[in-house]
Amino acid sequence: MRKQVLSLLLLALTGCATPKASFGAPTLGKDALATQIGEKPTPTSPPTGQQWLYGSAEGSIASAQVYKSMAQFVRAQALNRSAKMQVVLAEGSTPDTPRFESCGAKPLAAVFDADETLIWNVGAMRYMAEQGKDFDPFIWNAWEKSGAGKALAMPGAIEALKIMRDAGVTVIANTNRSAANAKGTEDALRMAGLGEFKHQETLYLMGDDAMGSSKDGRRAAIAAKYCIIALGGDQLGDFAQAFNMKSLSVADRRKLATHPAIANLWGNGWFLFSNPVYGPSIRGSYDEIFTSETKWAPAQ
Amino acid sequence: MRKQVLSLLLLALTGCATPKASFGAPTLGKDALATQIGEKPTPTSPPTGQQWLYGSAEGSIASAQVYKSMAQFVRAQALNRSAKMQVVLAEGSTPDTPRFESCGAKPLAAVFDADETLIWNVGAMRYMAEQGKDFDPFIWNAWEKSGAGKALAMPGAIEALKIMRDAGVTVIANTNRSAANAKGTEDALRMAGLGEFKHQETLYLMGDDAMGSSKDGRRAAIAAKYCIIALGGDQLGDFAQAFNMKSLSVADRRKLATHPAIANLWGNGWFLFSNPVYGPSIRGSYDEIFTSETKWAPAQ
Q1: C-beta atoms of B61 and A284 within 8 A
Q2: From A57, which residue of chain B is nearest by alpha-carbon distance?
Q3: Contact assignment for A289 to B55 by CB distance below 8 Å
Q4: Lowest-pLDDT choice from B40-49, B57-66, B93-102, B104-113
């Protein structure tokens, strides 16, 4: 996630960091670390997206609902002995013309993003928000190294992973945290109660290959050893890098992600977790978010 | 929803309405209608929650995923001839000590909230945001009367309602839109492609009884005629009014909503749709949203 966050948390959080300050006395962030993105007045309460995701009953239930249906799906797949296909797009195929390879006799696996999919980064998110910052890559790097014990398992995750592992499915994380901080991430996942993840066996990180923040190569590496029957993530890049093409407009990205050729995978092999706090989902002008056909004004 | 919106859209949208203005030239709202909540500089792009919900692929997929699993659940219940229980809390019972009545021979029904559950209020949401307003009850009232054709069916809703109706299940809306605007809401639902909803038969509105914005009485009235096998909504009040007790802290509300006595209902009779834009979910200070156990700071 790190690279995405660097370029996108800005879009995501600028929307909410400032106005709360107008309810309180703004003070500048004071941490000693360098900031690559400008500082902001300290908000007196978290951004609305963080209130919904990390604090509300609705945010917790939304996560638990997805984990419940994902666990049911994975367990049913594991009990069903029929031949399986990978749910990862075959190399060179695209969401609008997908190909999927057969699994042969490979052992089953479920592959998850880490940040805001397996764990809530509440320690770092609170710290950066209280500092009035959208995102600080130095703070984030410190979080990857030392955040273990301060990150929370997402609601429903611990129960769902137990069901999957009990069904004989290997649980693997594929995250854009840095390979340089592998131990910190292994510790964060274990201390959140999610069990053991081992770098290059059940934990794939940015830097494991030369493809940067694209997870396609790591997915291919996992699919070479396992039959991936389910993918879980909060960003479309957790399913296929094609969704991150810079050339895609907001509408085209939505259209591609719901293309009839893959639409049936959502909730049925591909499982999306709601994250209204950061990521490529948080962008767009009024004309990009709303269509002209639905423009309305009250009668004067 | 109306009353909730009046008291809560404020909390929801203040977080995002102002800062975007700092990216553009703020101008005051100009609509001729009275405003009960103060105006704001016009933001140059929608609040982040609206970007995620109404514009992003992720927001659309989150809705479609819930509708897909809800349709599967309702269809399976309809095909299963065994005796059913209402999924509505029996009168006088609470989420922590729930009772559910048996359905006897009543016909099956699925009950939905309307706003941000069956339909996206994109016309009014864009208009109010562009006016720099959190919420304006006069504009909202005009929207209930004249918004038909400018509201969109939520992703997955049309397909899911067809599956439910084809399975012999009656689809009913229970919304806090005003009974005085019944025709406008009937028209909005029909013109969004969701089919026919008839006031006091398949459409229950605020003002149908003396309980104001509490939907408990309307749920009881529906349960007197139907076997309610599923509830869908974006706010906990769509499931039980007990979740709206003013005395509940953010943490207590989350605890009550995930109490072991009802936790299994989520995704299994009770279906929640993600709405990070407005509602009782959008509230809380840093100390209310984050626990002290997860407080973290980078090493200095």
Answers
A1: no
A2: B254
A3: yes
A4: B40-49
Least Cα separation, residue A242 to chain B (angstroms):
13
Give the DSSP letter string of chain A: -HHHHHHHHHHHHHHHHTGGGGGS---B---SS--SS---BPPSS--HHHIIIII-HHHHHHHHHHHHHHHHHHHHHHH--S--B-SSPPTT-BTTB----B-TTPPEEEEE-SBTTTEE-HHHHHHHHHTT-S--HHHHHHHHHH-TTSSEEPTTHHHHHHHHHHTTPEEEEEEEEEGGGHHHHHHHHIIIII----BTTTEEEETSSSSTT--HHHHHHHHHHSEEEEEEESSGGGT-GGGG-TT--HHHHHHHHT-HHHHTTBTTTEEEPP--SSSTTS---HHHHS-GGG------
ipTM confidence score = 0.87
pLDDT category at A41 given cuts 50, 70, 90 is low
Higher pLDDT: B22 or B91? It is B91
Question: How high is the pLDDT of residue A91?
Answer: 94
Nearest-Cα distance to chain B for A298, in Å, is 6
Best A33, A39, A51, A140 residue to mutate vs chain B (most B CBs within 10 Å): A51
Q: Is 60 exceeded by the pLDDT of residue A179?
A: yes
Q: Do A146 and B283 touch (CB under 8 A)?
A: no
